[in-house]
Amino acid sequence: MALTFIEKEGDLFTCSNTASLAHCVSEDLIMGKGIAVEFKRRFGQVEELRKQKSTVGQFAVLQDGERYIYYLVTKPKYDKKPSEVNVKYCLREMRDHILQHGVKELCMPRIGCGLDELDWKKVKEIIKTVFQGCPITVTIYHQAPENNSSQCFTEVDGDLFNCPSTWSMAHGVGEDLVMRKGIAETFLKRFGQLDLLNSQKATVGQCAVLKDQSRYIYYMIIKKLCNHKIQESSLRQALLFMRDHCKIHGVKQLAMPKIGTGYNSLEWDKVRRLINDVFAQTDIHVTVYNYVK
């Protein structure tokens, strides 16, 4: 039996639940955007994947019943791009595992060709070459892109203050600019200039802004006083205000915590939708950091 190679349009996750799956990830296993988010949501076990210590050109793998879920490590960090060579190395490693474990059916997206921007025609030929002569059916799922904002939004685990020093940053505060706890206290310690912030007299739904070399530090005024709860409408107004400032000043990368979900207790799913809605159809990429102790 030789390779059977199939391409079809549709949702990868509608394939047979006995078919093994594969997709591309970075060595840091962030999985904060694209189809990787759905793999992370469905199969979890990120710590198990990390324990395997797979490096670029290798893969990590989970067993899901009788099938395998392959995580092809094609690049070192989530914000880098893979090379065709590293995709080929990953595929070869996965192929050997597949042959050793008797996998007969493998389904995957157009690996490396979504957010990673490789040429699908070239990647397809690499897949066919690697699996040539193997007794397996490889099915490639291609889902027509929807008109949404998922590509402008990334979620990562880590310390917000480890973001690149050229990225602008944002967080939420009260109109009184009292920053005595949580991440607001860290912003105050790092960037100071409280008198300058107060002099801007920003009100709820606006932002006070500091310039930090080539980037901006946004203080989103999302409530009247520091001990008040916020309303989604106030958060939306502040996001819109900040978005417009970003567009005027050419900001392309913006980092923030899960605003409104700490002491303010908003539901993150609702806040996520707000951010997506506000930054849709812009060239501003928002990275949200989830601090993990």
From TrEMBL:
A Pfam family the protein falls into: Macro
Domain of life per record: Eukaryota
Signal sequence, renumbered to the chain: none
Coiled coil regions, renumbered to chain: none
Gene3D superfamilies: Leucine Aminopeptidase, subunit E, domain 1
InterPro entries: ADP-ribose_metab_enzymes (IPR050892), Macro_dom (IPR002589), Macro_dom-like (IPR043472)
Annotated PANTHER family: ADP-RIBOSE GLYCOHYDROLASE OARD1, PROTEIN C6ORF130
Protein's recorded name: Macro domain-containing protein
Origin organism lineage: Eukaryota, Metazoa, Spiralia, Lophotrochozoa, Mollusca
Gene name in the database record: 106078797
